[in-house]
């Protein structure tokens, strides 16, 4: 049959095994399935019919022929829109002979949805997560300027998109043509989007060479060859493995959950009261306005920290946007904690008849990290261990809980070396096996490292984790108080910051601002010597020798003058001469051009010409946004100073963790949760737990080392019979890893915990039989 799309007609016909290989290059593939279950959306629905398109002609592929069709094209690249779903459908249909995940290993599978999100991140600074922004229909409109209608109905009035199940096991000749046309058109559209995105991303890599973090053209080419354009291959592997985590689900001890409900209600009330005391309503009429007002006030209280905004200039309030402020702004910590508890409580109460929840995950946020939503936000649970201990493994299994040690600092050290060409003292200490917190505490106290107390060590942790993102002393004090319960005086914060910079001198270069704000301001407002002279009658800048032949170019001196006008009631020159009325009129009139791009409070101040340090910071932050490359070659546009620096180490840490998750899943393990740098895995209770833990650890280190090859990566692990934040490795007298229980034994353990063991020195890897592992395959 002929399929029309974009003014062209393409021939589609049924594929039969006798045709053999019909494509010699990449082709798109789309699976239509029976309706996805509303009650169990994590289950993979059955394949009904597929279609493939290689740019010139297409084929319909029935259930019985799909395995043979894929086998006939073993080396070709597959292109999908939302590849994890289609691959799962094909894997379920084809069984053990399916090679789709082998192709992912070989980087021969593409996902236009992920390419779109990565391109938007690199050009607009977000990941197109709002409803409808990343559908195939939206991508066709954006990249091809065509329409791809999705509200198509069959002859009986049924919605075509959701009613393919009626054609299960039917031949194409028996299927109503509108269903075939809908499927075929999707494959043609995906092909067009794929080609357009690849071209746009290639161009983006060429024009983005002045972005902070860029090393060289050869470097970016190597990154894109290894990790995929803008890290596509990493994100695809992460998305597939995270879909498996969702499918696996987390089991709940129902009795413990019911006892926990009052605890959660108490915690929610406490957080709600705390937020109200800070001047913010969290629910009901007026709560959004209240939150916007609160964020405006906070921005003034935290100079140097950029509060994210929406396209409409309002403060962004999504978890993704606010995640950049976590730790730095205690109010945001409370707000997100309240949301998490409220969601958890509603999940617990609404699903008391369900002994299992299936959290969903977003593979990519602005920093490159993942996020969780759906049944449960499994990455932002309350800190109270009574919550985590409600989650238990399947009967006959135990949890292995594995997490990386200070992985973001490891990635920071690697970035300093390989991206910025700096000698990394931090990396040298990590490679020498040193404890960074204890090392810094020793410098601060003047004690030998072995004499540093745990309290002294704990007091500097906020510095090691807060300063790399560019925290000033004021923000550092708030971060230490909110995250670690440590109070710094102003002098202590300043002194600790200097000690930290002395300990890691490469950080002075790393934290230097690569963006010249006055220059950007001059460009953005067209502040040229000629324009200034024409509007003020003052031609001194035009006549200045340094501006000869550059009179019509944006002038950095004027940008600096403009910033002074924004921040001071009566600005003066360096010689103490007040700015003229004409100068003030020139700058304020130019600034009005950006009033619509600022938060309402700052826009009003600008239009009414009311200078203040807060207004100065707001405009400087607006013009100070810029792009940043991760060491894996992903580009993020429009990032603030703090966001750029956080992205440098958070981005690759997440990329390495996704590769690790992929490797662990491919090794056959059942992963039931993923929390940024932590994996929760179920293994048989009677197995050699140490051997399992060591094998998973090897895979996790290998995945991260693919991103961080020169700085030592290490992983801690523990076994437990329920999830617990404080769990640590415990070995019996024979050197066997055994489940941990809380201090005090069974009396202090949550209901249902069993076993009690003393801790001994961990056996060396040579004592463990990593080969003797009986795996429960996860595929």
From TrEMBL:
InterPro entries: DNA-dir_DNA_pol_A_palm_dom, DNA/RNA_pol_sf, DNA_polymerase_A, RNaseH-like_sf, RNaseH_sf
Enzyme Commission code(s) on record: 2.7.7.7
Gene3D superfamilies membership: 5' to 3' exonuclease, C-terminal subdomain, Ribonuclease H-like superfamily/Ribonuclease H, Taq DNA Polymerase, Chain T, domain 4
DNA-directed DNA polymerase family A palm domain mapped to chain residues: 384-687
Cell membrane recorded as keyword: no
Alphabetical keyword list: DNA replication
Reactions accelerated catalytically: DNA(n) + a 2'-deoxyribonucleoside 5'-triphosphate = DNA(n+1) + diphosphate
Similarity comment text for this entry: Belongs to the DNA polymerase type-A family.
Name of the featured protein: DNA-directed DNA polymerase
Protein source organism: Gemmata palustris
């Amino acid at each position: 049959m002929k399929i029309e799309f974009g003014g062209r007609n393409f021939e589609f016909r049924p594929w039969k095994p006798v045709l053999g290989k019909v494509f010699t290059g990449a082709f798109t593939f789309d699976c239509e399935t029976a309706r996805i279950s509303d009650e169990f959306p994590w289950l993979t629905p059955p394949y009904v019919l597929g279609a493939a398109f290689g740019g010139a002609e297409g084929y319909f592929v029935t259930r019985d022929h799909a395995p043979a069709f894929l086998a006939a094209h073993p080396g070709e690249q597959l292109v999908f829109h939302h590849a994890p779903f289609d691959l799962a459908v094909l894997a379920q249909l084809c069984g053990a002979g399916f090679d789709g995940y082998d192709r992912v290993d070989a980087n021969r599978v593409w996902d236009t949805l992920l390419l779109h999100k990565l391109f938007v991140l690199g050009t607009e600074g977000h990941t197109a997560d709002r409803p409808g922004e990343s559908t195939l229909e939206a991508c066709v409109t954006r990249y091809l300027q065509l329409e791809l209608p999705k509200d198509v109905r069959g002859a009986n009035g049924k919605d075509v998109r959701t009613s393919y199940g009626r054609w299960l096991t039917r031949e194409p000749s028996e299927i109503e043509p509108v269903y075939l046309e809908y499927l075929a058109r999707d494959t043609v559209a995906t092909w067009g989007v794929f080609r357009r995105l690849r071209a746009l991303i290639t161009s983006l890599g060429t024009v983005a060479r002045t972005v902070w973090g860029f090393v060289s053209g050869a470097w970016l080419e190597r990154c894109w060859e290894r990790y995929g354009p803008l890290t596509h291959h990493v994100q695809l592997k992460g998305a597939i493995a995270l879909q498996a985590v969702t499918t696996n689900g987390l089991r709940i001890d129902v009795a413990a959950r019911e006892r926990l409900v009052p605890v959660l209600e108490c915690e929610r009330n406490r957080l709600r009261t705390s937020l109200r005391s800070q001047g913010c309503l969290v629910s009901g009429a007026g709560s959004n306005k209240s939150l916007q007002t609160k964020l405006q006030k906070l921005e003034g209280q935290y100079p140097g920290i950029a509060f994210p905004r929406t396209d409409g200039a309002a403060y962004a309030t999504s978890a993704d946007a606010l995640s950049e402020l976590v730790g730095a702004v205690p109010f945001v910590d409370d707000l997100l904690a309240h949301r998490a508890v409220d969601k958890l409580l509603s999940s617990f109460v609404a699903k008391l008849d369900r002994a299992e929840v299936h959290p969903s995950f977003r593979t990519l946020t602005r920093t490159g990290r993942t996020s969780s939503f759906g049944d449960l936000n499994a990455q932002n649970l309350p800190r109270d261990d009574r919550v985590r201990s409600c989650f238990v493994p399947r009967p006959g299994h135990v949890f292995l809980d594995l997490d990386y040690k200070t992985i973001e600092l490891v990635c920071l050290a690697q970035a300093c070396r390989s991206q910025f060409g700096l000698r990394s003292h931090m990396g040298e200490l990590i490679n020498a096996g040193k404890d960074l917190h204890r090392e810094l505490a020793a410098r601060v106290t003047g004690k030998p490292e072995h004499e540093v107390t745990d309290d002294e060590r704990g007091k500097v942790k906020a510095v090691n984790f807060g300063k790399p993102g560019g925290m000033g002393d004021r923000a550092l004090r708030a971060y230490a108080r909110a995250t670690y319960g440590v109070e710094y005086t102003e002098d202590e914060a300043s002194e600790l910051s200097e000690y930290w910079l002395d300990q890691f001198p490469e950080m002075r270069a790393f934290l230097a601002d690569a963006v010249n704000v006055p220059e950007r301001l001059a460009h953005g407002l067209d502040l040229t010597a000629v324009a200034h002279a024409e509007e003020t009658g003052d031609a001194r800048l035009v006549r200045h020798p340094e501006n000869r032949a550059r009179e019509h170019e944006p002038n950095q001196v004027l940008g600096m003058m403009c910033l002074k006008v924004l921040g001071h009631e009566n600005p003066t020159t360096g010689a103490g001469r007040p700015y003229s009325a004409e100068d003030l009129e020139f700058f304020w009139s130019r600034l009005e051009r950006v009033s619509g791009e600022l938060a309402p409070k700052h826009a009003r101040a600008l239009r009414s010409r009311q200078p203040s340090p807060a207004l100065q910071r707001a405009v400087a932050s607006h013009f100070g946004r810029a792009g940043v490359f991760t060491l894996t070659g992903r580009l993020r546009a429009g990032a603030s100073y703090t966001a750029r620096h956080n992205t440098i180490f958070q981005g690759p840490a997440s990329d390495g963790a996704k590769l690790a998750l992929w490797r662990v899943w491919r090794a056959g393990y059942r992963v039931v949760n993923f929390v940024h740098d932590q994996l929760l895995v179920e293994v048989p209770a009677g197995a050699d737990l140490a051997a399992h833990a060591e094998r998973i650890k090897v895979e996790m280190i290998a995945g991260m080392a693919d991103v961080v090859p020169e700085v030592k990566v290490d992983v801690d692990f523990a076994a437990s019979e329920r999830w617990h934040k404080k769990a640590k490795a415990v070995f019996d007298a024979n050197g066997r890893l055994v489940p941990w229980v809380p201090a005090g034994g069974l009396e202090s353990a949550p209901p249902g915990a069993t076993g009690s063991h003393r801790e001994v020195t961990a056996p060396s890897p040579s004592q463990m039989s990593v080969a003797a592992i009986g795996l429960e395959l996860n595929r």
